[in-house]
Amino acid sequence: MNAGLVDLFGDSDSSSDEEEQISSQFCLPPEIEKGNIEYKLKLIDPTPIRLEHLVTQLKWRLQEGLGEAVYEIGVSDNGFLFGLTEEELQKSMETLKLMSERLGASLSILRERTITDPSGISKKSLEILIRKVSEDSEFTRIRIAVLGNIESGKSSLISVLTHDELDNGQGKARLNLLRHIHEIQTGHTSSICNEIMGFNNSAQVENFGNCRSVEEILEKSSKLITFIDLAGHSKYMKTTVKGLTTYSPDFIMLVINANNGIAGTTKEHLGFSMALGLKIFIIVNKIDQVSESWLEQKVTEIEELIKSPCCDKSPMRVRTEEDAIHAAQYLSDGQVCPIFMTSCVEGTNMDILTKFLNILRPILVNEKETDLNQLPEFQVDDVFYKKKPGHILSGLVQSGSIKEHDKMLLGPFKSGKFIPIEIQTIQRYRVPCNVVRYGQSAAVSIGHPENMKEKLRKGMVIVHPKLNPVACIEFEAEIFVLFHASQLSVGFQATVHIGNVCQAAVIVRMDKNEIKTNQKAKVVWKFMSRVEYVRPGSTMLFREGTSKGMGEVIRISAFNPNEVLSKKLKTDFDSLTSIKKKKKRLKAKLNRVFHDTSNIEC
Description:
By secondary structure, this protein is α+β, with helices and mostly antiparallel strands. It contains 12 helices and 28 strands. The protein has helices at residues 48-64, 86-103, 154-163, 181-186, 214-220, 237-246, 266-275, 292-307, 321-331, 350-359, 367-370, 561-601, and strands at residues 37-40, 68-73, 106-116, 122-131, 140-147, 193-199, 205-206, 223-229, 251-257, 279-285, 314-317, 336-341, 377-386, 390-399, 401-403, 407-411, 419-422, 425-428, 431-433, 435-437, 441-447, 461-463, 472-483, 493-498, 501-510, 520-527, 539-544, 547-558. Strand 11, helix 9 and strand 12 form a beta-alpha-beta unit.
C-alpha cells in the first residue's frame, strides 16, 4: 500500500524535476521481448519456413496485446530508424499483409516517417496497427471511467467523442448524456451513465455521428470504448466510488478545468484511482477560455503533482499524433501519465485524443480470471422488472462464462441463502446474445422464480452451484488509513465498497487500540444492514465524511442464521427482563409515594 497516497487527501508537496523526454526523433526505445510492439528492419521475400516463423511471431504479439499489435517497419531491434526505399517498403507491406491474412487480422497505417541518411537519400519507415478480434468475442473492449471536479466538462467531452458534435459553450453537448431533470437544470451529473464509441478495422471512428443506433456501432466496430461518466460533486462521492469499484474500469480519464486547475474533488478522485491501481491519463479541458500563459501555469502544477511521491509517475504532454501513439503504448506500463489539452467548443486536439483511444491497448489481466473454463460468477449492479421477461439483472461477469438456460444460484438474501434460478435470455448493449464472458457487461432475465420470497437488490451475485457460495455478515481485512482527523478505533462506522457491495459497516475488533492517518491494522468489520457475498482477496475502500481508507479482504466469517437468531432471542430476553425490572422498580416507587401521601393525610 502506497503511503504517499495520503498526500492526495490533504495538502501535498510538489517536486520540480525536469520533464523526461520519452520519444526521440531518430531513435525509438529498444525492442523488448514481451508486449505487443515488434520492430522489423525489412520483410522482403521470406522463405516458407521464415514466413511461418513470422506468422507465429505475429500471433504472439497479438496475444500479448489482447488482439492488437504494433509493427515498426524500417526500425532495427535497438530502435534506430534506418528507413526503407519505396520498393523495399512496398514488398515489406505485402509480406505483412500476407501474415495478417493468415491469422484473419486487419492492418492500418498509424503514421509514416521520413528519414534522410548521410548520403542524402530519403527513406521511410511505417508504424502499422494490426488488429484481430478473437474467435470467442465480437470486439476488443476497453472501459474508461471519467472523473474530475464539477464544471470540468466531463459529460460534454464524452458527448463530443461519442456523438461527433461540438459543444456550443453553454452545455448543449452534455444534454445527450444527462438522465434526470435535476441534472439538466443544474448541469451536474449525479448518476452513473455509460456511453460507447467504436473503431472499425480501418481505424475509423464509429459513433452516433455516423451510426443511427447502438446495434450499428457494434456491428461495424472491431474495438469498443465504453465511457463511464461519474459524478464530480462531493455530495455524490458515494456514487462515484461505487462506480469505480463496481464497473472495474481499465483506465481513468481525469478531466481538469483549465480555469481552475487542481481544485475540488480532483485530488480525491486521483487518490481513489491510485488506491485501486488504475492507469490514469489527464485531460486539461476548456483551454479555449484561458490564455497560453495561464494554461502553461496550470499544466505545470499538474505535472508537479504527477511527479510527486504520492503519484510517482512521469507526465507526458501530448501535442501531436506521434506523441499520442507513444502515450498509448507506454500508458499500460503504468509509469507514464499522458496529459492532453482539449476544447469541446473549438474541437482542439480532439483528433489527437481519438488517435490515442484507437491505439490504447486493453489491460492484461490474470490468466486464471480470464480462463473461460472457470466457474461463472456475475455481480448484480442493477435490478429491473417487466411482466413479460420477468426479473432482469444487469452487471459484470467476474469469471468464466454464462450461457442461456444455465442453472445458477442467486443471492444472498436476508436469510443468507442462495436460490436456484435459470438464465432465460441475455443481452449485451441491448443486443440479444447467447453467451457472455469474463469482463463483459450484460443484462440477464431470470423470469419469475417460484421460491423467491424476498425482493431482489443491487449487490447480489449469480454464481455456479459448484462454487458453494457463502454469505457473510463479518469479514477480516487489512486496512490502511488514507486520512482521519484523529484516530480510528473499535466502533468506527463507515460506508464500505467491495466490488458491487456498498453498505455501512462497523469495526468490531482490531489488533491495535487505535490507528491514525498513514497507519495500517487488521480489523474485523460487521455489516450493519444485511449479509453480503464477499470474496477473500478483494480490494476494499471505506469512507465516512472526510475519513477515507483502503484495504484488502483477508477472510470471511460464514453467516450462521441460527447464531444470529439465538443472539436476537437473547437480546430480546435481556430487553424483556430489563423492562420487567424497570416496571418492578416503578411499582415500588409508586407504592412508596402512595404510602407517604397516606401518612401525611393521617
